[in-house]
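dude i think i finally got it to work??
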Amino acid sequence: MTKKLLAELLGTFILVFFGCGAAVLMGPQIGMLGISLAFGLSIVAAAYSLGAISGAHLNPAVSLGFLMAGRMPMAEFGGYVLAQIAGALLGSLVVFLIASGKAGFVLATDGLGQNGFGAGYLGEYSMGAALIFELIATFVFVSVILAATASHVSSASTALAGLAIGLTLTGIHLVGINVTGVSVNPARSLAPALFVGGKALSDLWVFIVAPLAGGAAAGLAHASGFFRPGGIEPAPGTGAATL
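look at this
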């Protein structure tokens, strides 16, 4: 179990370091497309390096989806979430330490890739738009993960699961980065918000509630058999799925 938790911590660190780091350190140079690719590629990197250890959830909403689908025991869920939050905090800290080495960097205005909505944030979309996007995007993201790593999937297809999941996250960013900065991950949202404070903290509840609801809904849909071909029964819960 300790090895799994360390893998989740390291994997979530990779996600935040790649994704939020790209936004903070290279945002003007690479734009939204580059930031989207950074988040997607971070998932690919973590999936193929750590997936065999912990399943590379890297996200409380994903772990909740596995729990609701019957593919993760409750005894592991809490530990995964704590490890993911710790990894995200470490990632945000490292990005902050690097960013603060540049003259003129101001945390309160330059930020750490935090999520948000409303006046003054990217496209200035409403709270309702942010909730809808995060709920639907997380449902899609977790559904793809559960389907791509299911027991009925062929070994050849499973070998490509990390790539499919990473590309899905890239696509989600391409659609919604101007809406909320894209969370679909409470740990990824919590960490930079704690550093930045202010509006980032007041907006944070959206990026906890909506992704968790979307992840839970995807897990329940998977448990119902919606994503399985006819006649195939789900495998009994055996802990975290491996990519």
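The chain has ten helices and no strands.
im so relieved honestly
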